[in-house]
Amino acid sequence: MKKITVFPEVIFSIGPVRVTDTVVDTWIVMAIIAGAFYLITRRLSTEPSLAQEALEAVIDAIVETIREVRPIDPWRVVPVVGTLWIFIGFANLAGLVPGLDSPTADLNTTAAFAIISYLSSHAYGISTEGLRGYLRHYTRPTWVLLPFHLVSEATRTVAMAIRLFGNMISGEMVGIILLGVMGLLAPVPFELLHLIIGVIQAFIFGMLTLVFIAGGLRHGE
Predict the structure, then answer these.
(1) Which residues have C-beta within 8 Å of that of residue 169, sequence separation ≥ 6?
(2) Which end of the chain is more exposed for a tag (fewer CB within 10 A), N or C?
(3) Residue 130, by phi and psi: left (phi above 0), alpha (psi -120 to 50) or beta?
């Protein structure tokens, strides 16, 4: 039976660096994504296979979503937002694979994603207007609001990390409880629900990141 722990377990060490089970699971997810995309894209064709059509549909959906949120060149933010959507989606669903745990069921992982989201919004804003010009929006309409702006950005980052972590760890815990109490078949409907929730949570996280980036670009403009 799969074991759920709030704190990651150290699998091995490389010198002073401790490699946890979350890191190993993340490496496996990365290998799966890289392998799948390599197999799909190595022989692109004007008469696409089913896998190529599915990948093109995903990319088109990402581009259209970005365009609807902010009227900019979508490929300006696809590398960040698209990667978050795809990677978090795979990471959320990794727990459905026997022997794997969802990396996003570890607060360290979701905190890292939240920090990436936080830094991305500022990076895009600074790239648009420069550091000094971008920082001016913290003092608008008055310097009095500066601490409130800073607190709101810190709390939204923490909330993003905890929301994703809480949804994934609770889902895995409920699945384990059902498996132990009701047997092998009872958790199947719940696992299907877990699949849907995993995809939705990835979409929400990516969408929030996109909204924050759009806000940074707006301030820059």
Answers:
(1) 4, 6, 105
(2) N
(3) left
pTM of whole model > 0.85? no
Cβ 203 vs Cβ 85: under 8 Å: yes
Distance between the two ends of the chain, CA-based, in angstroms? 53
Q: Which one of 16-20, 59-63, 210-214 scores highest in mean pLDDT?
A: 59-63
Are 127 and 134 contacting, i.e. CB atoms less than 8 angstroms apart?
no
> Which segments of 15-104 are extended strands (E)?
17-20
Q: How confident is the model over 132-154, as pLDDT tens digits?
A: 877 777 777 777 778 887 888 88
Q: Which residue has the higher pLDDT, 33 or 221?
A: 33
- Segment 170-180 shows an average pLDDT of 66
Preceding amide of 103 cis, omega within 30? no
Select from 41, 36, 163 the least CA-distant residue to 110: 163
Amino acid at 8: P
Structure tokens at 45: 């064709």
Among 158, 52, 33, residue whose Cα is nearest residue 93: 33
**Hey, which bits of the chain come out as E strands?**
10-14, 17-20
